[in-house]
Design goal:
By secondary structure, the chain is α/β, with parallel strands linked by helices. The chain has helices spanning about 55-60, 85-95, 110-115, 145-155, 160-170, 175-180, 185-190, 195-205, 210-215, 230-240, 260, 265-275; strands at about 15, 25-30, 35-40, 65, 100-105, 125-130, 220-225, 245-250. The longest helix has 15 residues, at about 265-275.
Length: about 280
């Protein structure tokens, strides 16, 4: 696996080459035990973690590697998309880091982090915040909603497509969406809206296979919102039951974005786990 390319003096981003040749960018900040952050869908890029100073608060204690997922920020893309390629992107970043690390993924980023954890021996901890993996009778995405997003994108209405995603799939309230819209990254989120349908299709086809997780002894922290849509709660519970060394922490009055609404609590939970795992 390719090692990280050191940045030029004064540069903020570094890159690795993923398995399919795509360049994947990430930003490294802070010092201490390494923590890799994988953002979800409907966000701009690694700057997702800058909301409410989450990344800077983490970087006071750990070395943060915040990824730009493919098709966003300074990362490249490919003509053909697949879940497997995105998983290999995460593995490429993880294996470019010399020391054992903690891997944290949110939403679709948690899907990728979970699968990547099965392909590398470099982890000493795994944090998953509400993976979007369908379990039971739940569908993570409604085909009609994906079709609606595609129609809006074809009309050039990226912003409305993003709004549909956040509301219908992410389950965010109007107030939470307004908080996103007020952030400086909103225009970049809109620009990346074309990635949403492909990721939602991949998420809806992602099967949880408990037998594959049974041998994964890496300590794992599962984060969940007490008021999150039931589909996320059930996915978190199913993963917890499948992993032999996991625990759940619930943000009682929150939904899918506690890092935004309760940043201090979120940072405290993450740092406590990182300390336990090192």
């Amino acid at each position: 696996m390719a090692k990280a390319t050191p940045p030029d003096e004064g540069a903020e981003m570094e890159t690795v080459t993923s398995a399919d040749g795509t360049e994947i960018a990430f930003e490294r900040t802070g010092s201490g035990p390494p923590l890799v952050l994988v953002h979800g869908s409907g966000v701009s890029d690694h700057r997702r973690w800058e909301i409410a100073d989450v990344r800077s608060s983490l970087a006071d204690h750990v070395t943060v590697y915040a990824i730009d997922r493919r098709g966003r920020g300074e990362s490249g893309d490919a003509d053909t998309y697949s879940l497997e390629r995105e998983i290999q992107d995460v593995v490429a970043v993880v294996e470019s880091i010399d020391d054992p690390l903690t891997l944290l993924g949110h939403s679709f980023g948690a899907n990728l982090a979970l699968e990547a954890s099965l392909l590398t021996d470099s982890l000493n901890g795994l944090i998953l915040y509400e993976p979007g993996i369908p379990v039971g009778d739940h569908d993570m995405s409604d085909p009609a909603v994906i079709s609606q997003m595609n129609d809006l994108l074809a009309e050039g209405n990226n912003e409305e497509a993003l709004m549909v995603f956040l509301r219908e799939i992410g389950g965010l309230t109007s107030d939470e969406i307004d908080m996103f819209r007020a952030d400086a990254s909103w225009d970049d989120r809109v620009a990346g809206a074309h990635t949403l349908p492909r990721e939602e299709r991949a998420s809806s086809e992602h099967e949880l296979q408990p037998n594959r997780l049974a041998a994964m002894t890496t300590p794992s922290l599962l984060l969940s919102g007490g008021k999150s849509p039931q589909k996320f709660k059930d996915a978190t519970k199913a993963i917890h039951e499948a992993l032999p060394n996991s625990r759940i922490v619930t943000f009682e009055d929150e939904q899918h974005v506690a890092m935004q609404n309760k940043p201090e609590r979120f940072v405290d939970e993450v740092l406590s786990f990182v300390r336990e795992s090192n």
